[in-house]
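User: Teach me something about this protein's shape.
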Amino acid sequence: MTKKPCSVCSQLKDYAEIEYEADTDRPDFAAPYENLKITEPTVRNATGLIFCPECGQYYLEREWTPGGSEDALKTCYYESIGRISHLTAHKAIEGAVTEAKQWAEKNKQNAFGETRRKAYEELRAAASIEFKRLEKHAEKIVQDCLDALADRYANSNTHRETLERFYPGSKDANEKSVQKERKKDGERAAYTAEILGRYLEKIESPPLPLGLEVIRLLGDKQEDVSRAVYLPLLITLGKMKDRKEDLQKIYDELQKLKDDSEPAANLSRYVRRLKEGIGTKEFFRLPEEGWYDLSITDDVLLRHLQKLPGLKIINHIPPGYTEATIDFEYQGYEFSTDNGYLKWCWFVDEDCPEEILDEIKNHLRKIPQNS
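Assistant: First, the predicted structure itself:
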């Protein structure tokens, strides 16, 4: 259900424009627009963003002078205020920061270097404040991202229609041009998915429908889209460990995807452990000291685990763009390990006796390391 506009935004149109001639008084926008506030001044100057102080809705201010005129002796100025999504606001701010950084890098060896560097640092600091404001609307931004991803090829599809209409006889050239635009659409989609992941992690208690929509991206044909949402989903699902009914619905959705999606298969096992309360206690990390040991691969672990009498391997997912995972049973308890944090982390049921854990630890310590 679409949320009703607040008392300020309900008085504003989606788009408003004023026009005036040079050497004349500038007319004001309608009175309700005076209630809008500027963003951080440095951000405002770089992006033209303003916002509603009541609900946080963003608007974009623009000023321009047309390049020509029916009357060469008359110059007109135009200004507009238009409602934009929080996602568009985020991209505008991040784009401005990126551009400022590029200018600073480009000019660092000349007379403008220090000025550009200071401008970049000021904008970055102001942008961080604005991003904090945006985090309050994380749920809305995630939904904006989902909507954008669902319609990711709108630009290239429109481009195709235009070419077919005006250049029907140039099929090969048209297709080449369309594929070029489609590649750009894909790059924008990957960036949108990355933003989605950032804001998903900011939602303390994500609503189930939203979570299910994000989970379906694990089956996305564009790999860098599913890659971008995997780890944020892992973090988000951990926050939902006490919502057993929702976890069951999420598990059912993951089961539909797991045969065609490695990350979905990985997460389905994790969600099963969460909803059943099994295998969620971390009891060991390998190696015990230092960081990741490249000699301890999942194949090495499998061979070594199978040397322990009575141990049964349940599942093994080799490393792809998700971590490698091994599930096994021993003495009636279910264990799991993955290498997602630069070490092999080992998990078990909460009620597993310490003597059984000591058996597993001692067996693992016999693995040759740094060989």
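Now, about its shape. The chain has three domains: 9-136, 137-277, 282-371. The beta strands are 15-21, 37-38, 49-51, 58-64, 76-84, 281-286, 312-317, 325-330, 333-338, 344-348. If you'd like, I can walk through any region in more detail.
User: That's plenty for now, thanks!
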